[in-house]
Amino acid sequence: MALLSLTRTAALAAAALVALARGTPAAGQAGVEADVKAAFLFNFTKFVDWPATAPAGAFEICTLAEPGFDEALARTLEGETTGGRPIVRVTPAAPELARACHILFISRGEAAHADRWLTAVRGLPVLIVGESKAVADAGSHITFVVENNRVKFDVDEDAASRAGLKISSKLLRVARHVAARNGS
After folding, report:
1. How does pLDDT run across 105-129, given as a tens digit for each residue?
2. Half-sphere exposure of 128 (CA within 13 A, CB side)
3. CATH superfamily of 2-183
4. Residue 149: what pLDDT?
5. Distance in angstroms (rounded) separating the CA atoms of residues 166 and 48
6. Hey, which of 2-16, 17-31, 139-153 has the most confident mean pLDDT?
7. In this predicted structure, what is the pLDDT of residue 31?
8. Residue 134 CB contacts under 8 Å (≥ 6 apart), including other chains
9. 3-state secondary structure (DSSP) of residue 156
């Protein structure tokens, strides 16, 4: 069973890197787009390093999203681990509860409230992922974009670094655009 899980995890990680390098079809279907973004969120756990000050215990991917996305992410995360820790999906009830998250995903439907959530986690080792210009402007570290019918992402390496996060060069190489650390 453990070998099967490890093989599945390795296969997902490898497939995600290939997909990231090419861009992944969005196919114009909300369900497919949600599945693709859910797979990306899972794989971000493999290509971002969190500092020792990050919350201990289960690895929490927190979402502020519609139920369809949450269902896609729950399917993707079922039985998965990162660094020997189980990965769980959580919907924080209030911004201050997001401080226990490792990843905070803010959907375009929640973009109007992004400032409140980002203020609550600013300076903490929480990877902020969004899917709208409003969330990117508020300070997300990774922003999903759909370009030429493919899901891609932009990275603000400087903002991630200020939060104590180190994004792997492998992930940076497949990003559509990278705002480099310290403006370089």
Report:
1. 999 999 999 999 999 999 999 999 9
2. 35
3. Response regulator (3.40.50.2300)
4. 85
5. 6
6. 139-153
7. 80
8. 108, 111, 112, 114
9. strand
Q: Report residue 65 as tokens.
A: 């999203």
Q: Token pair 């929480």 is at which residue?
A: 126
Here the tokens at position 9 are 């995890």
Q: Under a CB-based contact definition with an 8 Å cutoff, are residues 141 and 159 in contact?
A: yes
In angstroms, how far is the first alpha carbon of the chain from the final one? 45
Which DSSP string corresponds to 4-59?
A: HHHHHHHHHHHHHHHHHHH-EE-TT-HHHHHHHHHHHHHHHHHHEEPPTTS--SSE
Q: Are strands 103-106 and 127-130 parallel, antiparallel or unpaired?
A: parallel
Residues 6+ apart with CB under 8 A from 94: none
pLDDT in tens, 10-47: 444 444 444 444 444 444 356 899 999 999 999 999 99
